Amino acid sequence: MVIPCYNEQEVLPETSKRLEQKMKKLIQNGVIADSSRIAFVNDGSKDNTWQMIEKLHNDNPLFQGIKLSRNRGHQNALLAGLMTVKDICDVAISMDADLQDDIDAIDEMLEKYKAGANIVFGVRSKRQTDTFFKRFTAESYYKLMNKMGADTVYNHADFRLMDKTALEIFSQFGEVNLFLRGIVPMIGLETAIVYYERSERFAGESKYPLMKMLQFAFEGITSLSTKPIRLITELGILIFFVSIIVLIYSLVRHFSNQTIPGWTTTVLSVWAIGGLIMMSLGVIGEYIGKIYLETKNRPRYIISKYLGDENDDVDLTDVKFQNTRNL
Ligand code: UDP
Ligand code: MG
């Protein structure tokens, strides 16, 4: 199991307790190997999260710790965790630290895996515990994403099972603009869905305030789809045709001596076109910015410490970073 944690000292004791129970049961029932592990990824927490992970690891080897050198955000933390465990596991299940995802859905995920699925998506069946605002914005967002051509699984966040094959293929996706829930469906293979009810955060507060959520939403669309650029182009073509009509109209008015003092329309159109140009430039700039980030080919995470089994043969460097060094 891979659990990203950012300032999660309030929930970690409970999360580790519940996960330990779950793992024990699964091991007892012979569903998973007794060498199964829970890896907490500390995403540059400023509280005692890492100290707690260290303590958990020292008390019980079931718990492992991956410490990032600084806060890199949820998606990168998850990536770091998955890429670190990829070579030492058959399947990895990712889950948030705050117990919003239903731990009992893990059983069903494993069943689907045994039935042949390479990837199992955890999907929320209801959003009752969310506020109306969050529910509305989230659902409109999924719809918008699909319209924009980004193929996401409706109401699926980052609670999912991936097997070795899926992880191996996923490691080839070297993009910096990470939006895992958009990339994972691109892998294809055999997929399955497990429904669960998402509950409220067990303790502590959301690490996704509105601003971060909006940024994440925007990132999702622009990192998966170039449709916004296409829309701008289409708009440009439309405006071009409109301007031809306006030109003919004004010429007719001119030659029939019906010209009016067109100050208002002139000023209005200058503003309208100006706005449109700015908007178009903004969108283009957005993509150029992304190209800039991708071409720099920076490591997406840096692991400063790893607490695992002694003979774990794990690779602690970002896949992409490693590729560049091998060149
Ligand atoms: N998280 C992280 N790095 C960050 C922000 C969040 O690793 O910079 C983790 C966090 O610890 C949690 C998960 O990502 O396990 C989801 O965050 P949260 O529950 O705060 O988001 P929400 O459920 O409110 O959208
Ligand atoms: Mg949460």
Helix percent band: 40-55%
Portion of residues in beta strands equals 5-15%
Q: What integer value in Å does the Rg equal?
A: 25 Å
CATH homology superfamily name of the largest domain: Spore Coat Polysaccharide Biosynthesis Protein SpsA, Chain A
Query: What is the overall shape?
Result: elongated
- Numbering strands along the chain, what is their spatial order in the largest sheet? 1-2-3-8
Q: Total number of β-strand segments?
A: 8
Order of helices and strands: EHEHEHEHEHEHHEHHHEH
The stretches of 5 or more residues where confidence is low (pLDDT under 50) are 323-327
Number of individual domains: 2
CATH class of the largest domain: Alpha Beta
* CATH topology description of the largest domain: Spore Coat Polysaccharide Biosynthesis Protein SpsA, Chain A
Sheet of most strands: 4 strands, mixed
Hetero groups: uridine-5'-diphosphate, magnesium ion
Q: Please give the CATH architecture of the largest domain.
A: Alpha-Beta Complex
Describe the model.
By secondary structure, the protein is an alpha/beta fold. It has 2 domains: 2-225 and 297-320, Spore Coat Polysaccharide Biosynthesis Protein SpsA, Chain A; 227-296. The chain contains 11 helices and 8 strands. The chain has helices spanning 12-28, 49-59, 74-85, 105-114, 132-147, 164-170, 180-187, 210-224, 227-255, 263-296, 319-326, and strands at residues 2-5, 38-42, 63-68, 91-94, 119-124, 156-163, 191-196, 303-307. The chain has a 4-stranded mixed β-sheet, sandwiched between helices. A 4-stranded mixed β-sheet has the order 4-6-5-7, sandwiched between helices. Strand 2, helix 2 and strand 3 (63-68) form a beta-alpha-beta unit. It starts with a strand and ends with a helix. Mean pLDDT is 83; it is low at 323-327. Uridine-5'-diphosphate binds at residues 4-6, 8, 43, 71, 73-74, 77, 96-98, 100, 201, 206-208.
